[in-house]
Design a protein that fits this description.
This protein is mainly beta and about 350 residues long. Strands 3-2-1-19 form a four-stranded antiparallel β-sheet. Strands 4-5-6-7 form a four-stranded antiparallel β-sheet, with no helix packed on it. A four-stranded antiparallel β-sheet has the order 8-9-10-11, with no helix packed on it. It has helices at about 1-20, 170-175, 330-340, and strands spanning about 40-45, 55-60, 65, 85, 90-95, 105-110, 115-120, 140-145, 150-160, 175-185, 195, 205-210, 215-220, 235-240, 260-265, 275-280, 285-290, 300, 320-325. Belongs to the glycosyl hydrolase 43 family. InterPro entries: GH43_arabinanases, Glyco_hydro_43, Glyco_hydro_beta-prop_sf.
């Protein structure tokens, strides 16, 4: 009997020890004494309570994020789903629009990410898009990419061609297609708009990157998930040898279903990729990690409310946005200007 009690006590102690054990950290962090390749990060985003306006959070490790400016707007002028690209002379540009029904895409510029000034606007003739004459007057989540190889910007957004109905509201979202134009200076743009992806499936929130010798389109598969379309409402990725495609090798889902607004950053040591995505409507954020953009990807534990298991954390009620790398000097300048919520570190 004493031996049995001893075994039971040992088993209980073992389970308790395991439950309190520290879980492994995500890959990509710097080792002690190692200098980071990527020193800091900016998350420019909306909030659940103030949708479509501009807020900042920052991070030193790409995993733990703190709000700036006491959780207040960075500027009252901006409207849209924030997306930032840096031009060849170091100027930053942020793109947005007043609403999906607005005809124009708006641009602001900044040298320091602190002060944003109106730069210009662009009004696409949506119905002139080749092979897309039924385009509706909708411009969703414009995004901006500067391609160093061709020294041009690519402006992307999504536009549907079917209205929703009472019986089938999802056909509106399934009809979204990703369009683009190019520009050398963000003053004049190529015409007409063109489709970026030639698949007959809904796509939104598409942005481009040039890494690992290829171009990558990170996107949300906007078809509703069913047994016949199990990849619906997930984040996926495709690649191309050319900036404007064709994009192919569309990946399996990187995220669970009902995720959108992906954001991609390199890890501090430059040896992993962190892909964030929102579980909408404003529920939480997920994080997937891979050594290569082509995968394989796996999901990191977070939002469990257990310190040993939460390997990343964002301020509450943050919504769509973009993440970019910063130098430590840029990070320090933003913190000095706006102040940081130390409780969120």
């Amino acid at each position: 009997m004493k031996m049995l009690k001893g075994l039971l006590f040992a088993a209980t102690l073992s389970v308790a020890t395991l439950s309190q054990a520290k879980q492994p950290d995500p890959p990509g962090q710097v080792a002690p004494g190692e200098r980071p390749v990527n020193e800091a990060y900016l998350f420019a985003h909306m909030t659940h309570a103030d949708y479509g306006r501009l807020y900042y959070s920052v991070s030193l490790d790409g995993l733990h994020w703190s709000r700036l400016n006491d959780g207040k707007r960075i500027t009252d002028d901006y409207r849209g789903h924030p997306d930032i690209a840096q031009g060849p002379d170091g100027t930053y540009y942020i793109v947005g629009n007043q609403s999906d029904a607005a005809t124009a895409i708006d641009l602001w510029s900044s040298r320091d990410l602190i002060t944003w000034s109106r730069f210009g606007s662009y009004t696409p003739d949506l119905k002139s898009t080749p092979g897309y004459a039924n385009a509706l007057q909708r411009i969703g989540a414009p995004k901006l990419f500067f391609d160093k190889a061709s020294a041009q910007f690519v402006l992307t957004w999504h536009t549907p061609h079917l209205e929703g109905t009472e019986e089938d509201g999802e056909r509106y979202w399934a009809s979204q297609r990703t369009l683009y134009v190019t520009s050398k200076d963000l003053k004049t743009f190529s015409a007409p708009p063109r489709r970026l992806l030639d698949w007959e499936m809904g796509t939104i929130d598409v942005f481009l990157r040039h890494e690992e010798g290829k171009y990558w389109a990170i996107l949300k598969d906007e078809t509703y998930p069913t047994l016949q379309w199990v990849t619906g409402k997930t984040i996926r990725i495709a690649s191309s040898d050319s900036l404007l495609g064709p994009y192919k090798d569309l990946s399996p889902p990187i995220s669970p279903n009902f995720r959108e607004a992906p954001m991609l950053i390199p890890s501090p040591n430059g040896k992993a990729w962190y892909l964030y995505y929102e579980q909408y409507p404003g529920v939480s954020y997920g994080l997937s990690v891979s050594e290569k953009l082509g995968g394989p990807w796996y999901q990191i534990s977070g939002y469990t409310f257990h310190d040993d298991w939460d390997k990343y954390g964002l301020p509450p009620k943050v919504r769509h946005g973009t993440m970019i790398t910063l130098s430590r000097a840029q990070y320090d300048a933003l913190v000095k200007k706006f102040g940081i919520e130390t409780s969120q570190r």
